[in-house]
Design a protein that fits this description.
By secondary structure, this protein is an alpha/beta fold. Helix content is 48%, strand content 21%. The protein starts with a helix and ends with a strand.
């Protein structure tokens, strides 16, 4: 509790002035990276904004001990969590790429390695638009069994609000083995509906599968959180906690929960 209105005012002043300064810096980043402005055009505008923001922030900073430590403390914790999340996702993506297998290596002698084929279709979600996802490679090499039809699906986010679902791409990896690759696109305002995208691929691109007999396989990572990885035990434990509580792939891609199989792997980042 702040106990006094003056302490609340100190916290409010630092929060508002700090937000103004950060917003000015973010606006400069947008003008440079997104709009492509040259430095001579973007920097003077930033200087004008900071000419008002920084003195205001400095004047409020002297009230740090009177309540200003609250917004700064909260901001520091949130910033640390975002940095941990960003590093963890980057390392996790790099590890996924390392565990991927090339199409040529995967398809070479696959029919001889399999003990049998099951009825229906299995859809494997993949982050990259090339290569074989870890879940599919594990299924083929360790369980040595696959469905009659296999679809490797990648949903690529686009920098537009909405994307025409008919822009879905379908290619054949192996017609004899019944393995296909589907690349769909989703805008940043959309929730990617994978069954609807596959239905569009069936109708518009003649993908030879039936959604009635389709099962979805998603990968799930369990982090070991030891000191052997790049992140360290503490930061990896924090990232693992956030990863466990993040929105699941089933919810993110509108997958029917009764048709989802999670294939787990232990990792040490």
């Amino acid at each position: 509790k702040f106990q006094a209105s003056s302490k609340l005012a100190a916290a409010y002043g630092i929060a508002v002035s700090g937000t103004m300064a950060i917003t000015s810096i973010c606006f400069y980043a947008v003008t440079r990276r997104t709009w492509g402005w040259p430095v001579w055009k973007a920097a003077p505008l930033l200087a004008i904004f900071l000419l008002f923001d920084l003195p205001f922030f400095g004047a409020n900073l002297v009230k740090f001990v009177d309540g200003g430590y609250v917004p700064i403390g909260v901001a520091a914790v949130l910033c640390a969590l975002m940095l941990i999340w960003n590093k963890g996702r980057r390392l996790l993506g790099a590890r996924e790429e390392q565990l991927q297998t090339s199409e040529e290596k995967f398809l070479d002698g696959l029919q001889k390695r399999l003990l049998g084929r099951l009825e229906g279709t299995t859809v494997y979600l993949a982050a990259q638009r090339a290569g074989i996802p870890r879940a599919l490679n594990q299924h083929a090499t360790q369980m040595r069994v696959l469905s009659e039809k296999v679809v490797v699906l990648t949903v690529l986010p686009e920098h537009v609000p909405y994307v025409d679902p008919e822009s879905v791409e379908v290619s054949t990896m192996s017609e004899s083995l019944g393995i296909y690759r589907v690349i769909a696109h989703a805008g940043f305002m959309e929730i990617a509906n994978v069954p609807a995208l596959l239905d569009c691929a069936i109708r518009m691109k003649h993908l030879p599968i039936s959604l009635d007999t389709t099962t979805y396989v998603v990968a799930r990572e369990t982090l070991l959180a030891t000191n052997k990885g790049e992140m360290g035990a503490i930061t990896e434990s924090i990232f693992g906690f956030m990863l466990r509580n993040a929105r699941s792939a089933s919810a993110s891609f509108s997958l029917p929960p009764e048709k989802v199989i999670e294939l787990g792997t232990q990792m040490d980042l």
